[in-house]
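This follows on from our talk about sequence and fold. Please put the record directly below this note.
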Amino acid sequence: MNITEYDVVRVISDIPAERVDKSVGQCLPRVGDLGAVILAHATEPQQEPAFVVECVGSDGHTIWLADIFARELERVPPTLGVA
C-alpha cells in the first residue's frame, strides 16, 4: 500500500533521535506508535519516499513529530463503520 498525506500509519522501526523535532513534542517515536502523515517530502524518483508524521495524544497535544522513511512505516487501513 502506498502512503500518502493524511494517512494513519504505524511506526515499525526505531527512528533516530536526530529526525525528531524536539521543539514540538516531548517523546521519541516507538515501534507500534500511530501517527498521521502531515507532509510527504518531495523526492527524486530514485530516492526513498519520506514523510513528516505527527503523533497526537488524547488531549490534542503533539507527542512527537518526526521525519520518517516509508520503510519505517506501515499504513493502517481505514476502518468501516467506526462507532
